[in-house]
């Protein structure tokens, strides 16, 4: 099964992805835990450009995310699924649709179409959106912020709204969960839903 985690920065995606991957391993499954952008040597180089490089146009940003994703799918995700492993991914196509398609104004369909081509239409069976308001998102972050994390609260609020809209359009795949819940309680809800499915 292919599972992705989505949400505004600071929502706890990485934490919950890691906890689910650990729970699945304890249940006896082979699990590939990965992230976007990244997941491959090329992807990690692109991640550095995207998060710590120079300012770029929205389409340049979308194209770099798509390039990283194309490599990730062919080198890591698809081979893992074909051998029967679970894949737990911190961000995937939905991030591009939300951030570049909706919030950067490129158009959700245009960005989705680009990613549909580069992934050969591979989408997760289950996506968890960790829902958190913009102010709490900002308050949870400390240390040096990357290029996207430095965006203002208005940007973050548009991200939150776009994820909620995405979930309303695809409720069978996308599940919205309250990211303000205690970490362990949220992890248990996710684990129960995944293992029950």
TrEMBL record:
Keywords: ATP-binding, Kinase, Nucleotide biosynthesis, Nucleotide-binding, Transferase. Pfam families: Thymidylate_kin. One of its GO terms (cellular component) is cytosol. InterPro entries: P-loop_NTPase (IPR027417), Thymidylate_kin-like_dom (IPR039430), Thymidylate_kin_CS (IPR018095), Thymidylate_kinase (IPR018094). One of its GO terms (biological process) is dUDP biosynthetic process. Residues 5-190 form the Thymidylate kinase-like domain. It catalyses: dTMP + ATP = dTDP + ADP. It is an enzyme of class 2 (transferase). One of its GO terms (molecular function) is dTMP kinase activity. Its EC number is 2.7.4.9. Belongs to the thymidylate kinase family. This is dTMP kinase. The lineage of its organism: unclassified sequences, metagenomes, ecological metagenomes.
